[in-house]
Amino acid sequence: MFQLPFPVRDANAGGGSKNLGDLPEWDLSDLYTSEDAPELKRDLDWLEEACASFATDYEGKLADLDAKGLLDCVLRNERINQIAGRIMSFAGLRYYQLTTDAGRAKFMSDMQEKITNFTTPLVFFTLELNKLPDDHLGKLLDQNNDLARYKPIFDRIRLMKPYQLSDELEKFMHDLGVVGDAWERMFDETIAGLQFDVNGETLGIEGTLNLLTDPDRANREAGARELADVFGSNIKTFARIHNTQAKEKEIIDRWRGMETAQTGRHLSNQVEPEVVEALRDAVVKAYPKLSHRYYELKRKWLGLDVMQVWDRNAPLPMEDPRTVDWPTAEKMVMDAYTAFDPRMGDLAKPFFNKGWIDAAVKPGKAPGAFAHPTVTDVHPYVMLNYLGKPRDVMTLAHELGHGVHQVLAAEQGEMLSSTPLTLAETASVFGEMLTFRKMLDNAKSDSERKVLLAGKVEDMINTVVRQIAFYDFECKLHAARRGGELTPDDINALWMSVQAESLGPAFEFMDGYETFWAYIPHFVHSPFYVYAYAFGDGLVNALYAVYAEGEEGFEEKYFDMLKAGGSKYHKELLAPFGLDASDPAFWGKGLSMISGFIDELEAMED
Fold it and tell me: 310, 118, 74: which is closest to 214 by C-alpha?
């Protein structure tokens, strides 16, 4: 299946675009000029024939190929992936620009169905690869260096070997994928179509979530209560989507013999379950010295006896509520990237002046933000919902980091450029850290420094603590669904079971907050995606500590790391920096950076 891009940031962004300057929009013509473009028809026709001829030439014959023959087979498969990816990138990106447009939704669905039908005959490729004996494949790789380049792909495919079904069932599973896609689309369209009436104004979900960062506490409360009311009115729909998708996953996992609901995600991330559990346990153990301690500070700053959920992302009383216009945001991020290495600035520049960013908040546009790599012979596209808040600048730095990573990794080619989710957050979080440190260095007063530090701590808590709480929620949800249908109240209870633990005693939870699981896209689009954020943040904190210590040749090693794409395992990529994610102390190093920032904030109170 060729997956669509989806919003991947849990960003509280949305609303209007007053006085922000000239916000860029995507120019998708580098993919195709329109639905009716002759190049699109040409590629669809080519794809249909290429898939059919590939199956004719290779099905049942992989075991008989010599090294040169297998390389030719891999290269043809890679080209098919590239054309299919180009078509789906165009359809998906157009759809996310305006999810409420029936024509765009139909076009995307039609393209997905066509490509699924075209590529079903190719299912044999990975199945037959997994049937090749290890020694036979090893000999072929030894005989041809060009073929040996693809060893990481073969290794990744062969991780699924123990869970592989019969050829017939695998084709059935492939075809069935469009049904799951339809449920994802239902979620997207439901979310995009929600309307929230706050203080006499009708807003979409982005505008309403944005109220949770409003300086006026009454506005924050009004936004939170309206979110709860609207989510509550639609909760049966969201519960149905989650029940159906979790059940579909349980059935597939059961047939494949996967040990847990998380197993498939760990395999695709190429990370050992025990490494993820070590991360999860380290973060949960650190809740008291991270989120609990920080929110107690914030409660005092806000002058509250107890915080409500609408205070979690409230601006600080000493914070300048200024709006950062687009040209200023661009300069801030570009200066930070260029200061690290001029090559980084050169890679980032085209995003701003070639239509590679879609920044404005618009009715019907997908919420959140993402960077989609499209295919290796085009370029990535970044989507934002930019409102001029300092956090929006950080989101720009984050997504631009993804984009730079994707440009560098494209050198690996279509099959080797894709980075596991656990490493995909490396450049994005590093880009955020560079921008933050640049802003911190330029702080003109202790008060400004305090606000910047607090903002960074909140972002890190949202990235580490909140995402691990999300992960725990998903683990509980999928485990509970295996025991039967879940009512909305059941799911609500699971959500609340992780909230107090992660946020701490500074909070009370309003009636209705139990439904706030409903709008998180990751749970629907990519189960268990969320721990990759915490993985990436911890990894980058450890990586940045090496950089801050003045590691010789760090920049070159960093660029090599990004250029590797998915061609190397996390152990290989981190080794040049003297880091190892399987070392239990590794996660402590990353979390200690957050704790250190909170130490500095506490010291400012004295």
Answer: 310
Cβ neighbours around 22 below 10 Å, total? 10
Statement: residue 240 has pLDDT above 70: yes
196 phi and psi angles, rounded to 5 deg: -125, 125
Q: How far is CA 159 from the centre of its chain?
A: 23
Give the pTM.
Answer: 0.81
Pairing status of strand 201-203 against strand 357-358:
unpaired
Q: What is the pLDDT of residues 87-118, one digit of tens each?
A: 999 999 999 999 999 999 999 999 999 999 99
Tell me the CA distances in angstroms from 192 to 4, 185, 230, 368, 408, one per residue in order.
Answer: 17, 10, 13, 11, 33
Residue 18: its pLDDT value, please? 62
Res. 417: pLDDT tops 60: yes
Residue-level pLDDT at 170: 85
As a dihedral over the C-alpha atoms of residue 253, residue 256, residue 258, residue 262, rounded to 10 degrees, the angle is -40
Nearest alpha carbon to residue 373 among 330, 422, 414: 414
Distance CA(425)–CA(413), nearest Å, equals 20
Under a CB-based contact definition with an 8 Å cutoff, are residues 223 and 211 in contact?
yes
Q: Which has the closest alpha carbon to 104: 113, 89, 93?
A: 93
Q: Is 370 exposed, middle or buried (0-12, 13-18, 19+ CB in 10 A)?
A: buried
Mean pLDDT of 516-523: 95
Percent of the chain with pLDDT over 90: 75
Spell out the residues 6+ positions from residue 111 whose beta carbon is closer than 8 angstroms to its own.
Answer: 87, 88, 91
pLDDT of residue 346: 97
Mean pLDDT of 8-16: 38
Q: Which pLDDT band holds residue 447 (cuts at 50, 70, 90)?
A: confident
Mean pLDDT within 501-522: 96
Q: How many CB atoms within 10 Å of residue 605? A: 9
Q: Is the pLDDT of residue 161 over 70?
A: yes
Per the rule left: phi > 0, alpha: psi between -120 and 50, beta: everything else, 550 is left
Q: Do domains 28-258 and 276-320+421-605 have the same CATH topology?
A: no
Is residue 288 a contact partner of residue 504, using CB atoms and an 8 Å limit? yes
What are the b/e assignments for 49-83, b being 16+ CB within 10 Å?
A: ebbeebbeebbeebeebebebbbebbbbbbebbbb
> 276-320+421-605 has which fold?
Neurolysin; domain 3 (1.10.1370)
Residue 370 pairs in a beta bridge with 383
Contacts of 172 (CB under 8 A, 6+ apart): none
Q: List all residues 6 or more positions away from 251 whose beta carbon is below 8 Å from its beta carbon.
A: none
- What is the arithmetic mean of pLDDT over 565-572? 89
Domain 28-258 has CATH 3.30.830.10: no
Q: Which residues are registered as beta bridge partners of 358?
A: 383
Q: How far apart are alpha carbons 334 and 340 in whole angstroms? A: 10
User: Which of 483, 60, 463 has its CA nearest to residue 247?
Assistant: 483
Structure tokens at 587: 């996660």
Distance between terminal CA atoms of the chain? Answer: 57
